[in-house]
Amino acid sequence: MADQADSAGATDTAGVAQAPPPTQALPPAVRVEGLWKRFGEQVAVAGIDLELPAGRFIGLVGPNGAGKTTTLSMVTGLLRPDMGRIEVAGHDVWRDPVEVKSRIGVLPEGLRLFERLSGRELLGYTGRLRGLPGAEADRRATQLLDVLDLAGAQHKLVVDYSTGMRKKIGLASALLHNPEVLFLDEPFEGVDPVSAQTIRGVLERYTRSGATVVFSSHVMELVESLCDWVAVMAAGRIRAQGTLAEVRGEAASLQDAFLELVGAGVRDTGESLDWLGGAR
Ligand SMILES: Nc1ncnc2c1ncn2[C@@H]1O[C@H](COP(=O)(O)OP(=O)(O)OP(=O)(O)O)[C@@H](O)[C@H]1O
């Protein structure tokens, strides 16, 4: 164990308390510089810079097609950027992929799972892929299944899981190896309010321990109630990033700040859709 006097500030021989040595600053959970991705003519991500601090609950928000999924896919090593540099927990994602992948958990959009395994088997398999000893993987799997209210369905095949159950087993797989940074693409989509509350509790506990959650969402109320740090994306660019208070600024809510930042007026349907509704 480290010498207490070395690690926690000390009292000198005259009994005067000395300031503790500065704690070593953690590298940002994610640092992105000049990141670009284009699909044919479509620029999905247009040279973004992003610095997401460690130990925060971070929301990446933006309208449909803003480039959130493309960004998260590149940050998690699933999609190769055209240009730019990405570090996760101080390691280059594309030069040091094994190091990065051991430190992250990912719940991607359009989650693909091993459908012919039961939930319990999926976690056992994930544990082996992650190099966990069998008994430890079992212990963690039992606790995760229990907390996420999947214990009753643990022997059911994943193909027979509902959308919300799939999100929860995907989350359990992403958490099993206790990653430093967890990336979640729309984790609450298709999840009922009770399960959403459970997932929330698990994620809040996880960030309280110093880990980082980065999640994308369209639901501003959710981001406002969960996140302490926000990045706003629109048309492939970062429009704002900072603490929730900084991004909200003078606006009454994050939703108002968001509409202002992305320059989106609510579309007036005018004379259009005049056929919709009314008696036939
Ligand atoms: N594989 C692809 N091939 C072609 N275009 C793509 C591809 N993936 C994304 N795009 C385009 O890139 C842009 C950004 O898409 P992306 O899925 O990253 O946005 P998003 O912010 O996640 O949107 P949403 O909130 O609707 O999921 C969109 O214009 C989309 O059509």
TrEMBL record:
Coiled coil: none annotated. The keyword Nucleotide-binding applies. Keywords: Antibiotic resistance, ATP-binding, Nucleotide-binding, Transport. It is a peripheral membrane protein. It comes from the Bacteria. Its main location: membrane. Residues 1-25 are annotated as: Disordered. This is ABC transporter ATP-binding protein. It comes from Streptomyces mutomycini. The lineage of its organism: Bacteria, Bacillati, Actinomycetota, Actinomycetes, Kitasatosporales.
